[in-house]
Specification:
The chain has ten helices and seven strands. By secondary structure, the chain is of the alpha/beta class.
Amino acid sequence: MDKIVDIHTHILPGVDDGAKTMEESLKIIEYLSKSGVTDIVLTSHYINNTKYNANEKNRKRIFKELKKRLNNDEIKLYLGNEVYLCEDIINLLESKEIVTLNDTKYILIELPLTGYLNNLSNILCELTSYGFTPIIAHPERYHFLQKHNKRIRELLEFNCLLQCNVDSITGKYGKKAKKLMKWMLKHDLVQFVATDTHSVGKNKKLEKSFKKLRKIVGEKEFIELTSTNPLNILKGKEVQGNLEYLMEEERNRN
């Protein structure tokens, strides 16, 4: 049985577009467990000035109740956020509106799917200057990267790490996302693969997606992407991006 550490899920009930009830949360956890997941980070959406803005206090209360209801000693739960990048992100962190992954320096960041943040570089620079390491959620889904994959450099320059969704490899998010994920895997640009689970769903293709990922990257890298690297960040250990690729890009530009 695989030991998969899932750093991106929407299981915390009633706070975003994921699980709605405690019972649904428990069903999703059972589903993930059967797919080989042993450690789960509950990264509910935080989008400033929207209804997806449950603060740390409220989410901790729900989190504690979920842990009490969970009847599975083999599953470990952690708290985090998937934060839609905004100019107020440092203030949100300092005021405890949002949290990092398991209270480490790593923070899961979401970017616009179809647009582009003109102040992206400034916000990422501020995050890193305060000692945080951004993990960019599902970069394969962003249109600006699908159109020009070399723009991944804009993220690597600020020490961002990259987390792909495992279902992208089987085409859940379209051909362009699948193609971009394969390109990033080929160039060793991905540090984490997670599920981004919102519900159990009707098709239950998660195991198929993990199987295909293993076939593409091989056993050693599969373990690194789904277990070693994710577990290291939850422990606050260092995980680095592909700096060699960034330096190669710099040489090509010059």
